[in-house]
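2024-03-11 09:14:02 INFO worker-7 job=invfold-0412 stage=load source=structure_tokens
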């Protein structure tokens, strides 16, 4: 009887051993499956950056002539004289009248003020204004014209010079080029991050383009909707992309 009981006990122990081994193996397999699912769902999001330094190849510059005289006829005559001086100034730099755009003449009557400082109905003088605008591919010439225009004041010409604006005509082509470079930059960053954590970059899940920032060289200025700085001849075009990859 004892022999029989020992046999039953031994069988139960053996059965328990196999059950324990089975549970361990099952737990290992389930754990591996879960880990594979987690890895399949893992992603990495990176930003890619690229920039290009360019030189503006188009410039615009404007200046405003202002004259004042008690009578409208006198103001018109003065404006004609001053306009001739301004055109002669441009001519000294090789700019013909055909290259210039003249705005219409703005006529502003200015009224006398009484002792309390209030305007009356009596005209004190007339103020006439006219704007001259140059658009040229010679950006260095435009810069020089803007710098030297103060000499017109010495010729009794009230000439207000606006700041020149500089543009780059190849902007659209540069944007396409920079998007490609920024995408490559993002891919390199993703590989470096993934390999550093023991993984590999998988398929691309999503990609989005940021706004372009066109700034002065080495500037850190940015705007939410992008910026286009026109104050300098030399510019930096900057592109950013955001890309999400799966991780294997």
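2024-03-11 09:14:09 INFO worker-7 stage=emit residues=248
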């Amino acid at each position: 009887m004892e022999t029989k009981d020992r046999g039953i006990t031994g069988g139960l122990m053996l059965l328990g051993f196999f059950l324990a081994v089975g549970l361990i193996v099952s737990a290992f397999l389930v754990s591996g499956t879960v880990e594979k699912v987690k890895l399949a769902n893992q992603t990495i999001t990176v930003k890619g950056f690229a920039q290009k330094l360019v030189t503006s190849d188009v410039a615009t510059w404007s200046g405003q002539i202002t004259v004042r005289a008690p009578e409208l006829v006198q103001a018109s005559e003065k404006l004609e004289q001053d306009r001739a001086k301004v055109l002669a100034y441009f001519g000294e730099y090789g700019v013909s009248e055909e290259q210039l755009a003249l705005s219409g003449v703005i006529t502003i009557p200015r009224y006398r003020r009484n002792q309390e400082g209030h305007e009356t109905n009596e005209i004190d003088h007339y103020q006439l204004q006219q704007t001259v605008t140059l658009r040229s591919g010679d950006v260095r010439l435009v810069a020089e014209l803007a710098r030297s225009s103060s000499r017109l004041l010495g010729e009794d010409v009230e000439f207000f010079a606006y700041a020149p604006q500089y543009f780059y005509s190849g902007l659209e082509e540069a944007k396409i080029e920079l998007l490609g470079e920024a995408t490559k930059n993002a891919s390199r960053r993703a590989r470096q991050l993934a390999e550093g954590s023991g993984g590999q970059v998988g398929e691309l899940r999503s990609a989005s383009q940021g706004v372009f920032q066109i700034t002065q060289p080495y500037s850190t200025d940015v705007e939410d909707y992008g910026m286009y700085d026109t104050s300098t001849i030399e510019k930096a075009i900057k592109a950013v992309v955001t890309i999400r990859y799966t991780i294997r």
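2024-03-11 09:14:09 INFO worker-7 stage=report msg="Residues 17-40 have pLDDT under 50 and may be disordered."
2024-03-11 09:14:10 INFO worker-7 job finished
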